[in-house]
Amino acid sequence: MVFNFDGVVADLPTIKREAWVMLAQQLELPLQQQMLQHPELQMMPPEVAVVRLLRWANDRRAAIGLAMQHAELAGQLLQQHNRPLEGVREWLDTLGRFNVPCALVSGLDRSTVQAALARMTLHDHFQVMVTAEDELETISQRLLTASVKLGRAPNMCVYFDSSPPGITAAHNVTFKAVAVQGIYRPHQLKNADITCSSLQDLSVINMRRLFANMGSEFMDLQKQAASQRNSNNDSANKGGRRRRIANAMMEPDE
Description:
This protein has 254 residues and is α/β, with parallel strands linked by helices. The chain is built from 13 helices and 7 strands. The longest helix is centred in the N-terminal third of the chain and has 19 residues, at 60-78.
């Protein structure tokens, strides 16, 4: 299991928004309320956001300077948070009882993440960490690195994220994807294999069901690699449709 620290374990989207507000107030820069809800403000690197979205800078040097100030403020705010998001601790405890190895990926530096995990008393729940020190540019690269460190094939891993780009990146490298609702609406997360409002809605059975037809799919891919034409003909002759797991919406218990 691979978790995104920045939106699943810690409420980093809220922290980043608060940091933008503080920075705008300190430097007396314009900031519209609707801009704080813009999804791209969360996904873009800060040095890009200050130019393209916020329009606070016109050159790279000024943009990097503002981005560094934003990162410093976000780090200060993160230090005030000593609890993970709802359901995180319970789900990690459940996975631990079943001896399921877990990895954590983040765009933050390792020391910041480790300090945050220590405050949340989650420092011993992750066997692998992929952070800014790994110098990886994309989410997909982080996920592949995490799978290598875990010693698991990508198609046998599950990624937990709260954003559409994260879900897409997971599928691009053959991960299963679980979307945790946050700043995005359910219909924006429809490409995930499972969508839940909180990790406490999940069970180990949910995870096993994600791989229920993995064997047949994997063999079909092997046959296609060996003989594309034969596999296509075989699929047509067999007549039946292969069963796939569609997006499942996990509703909280009443």
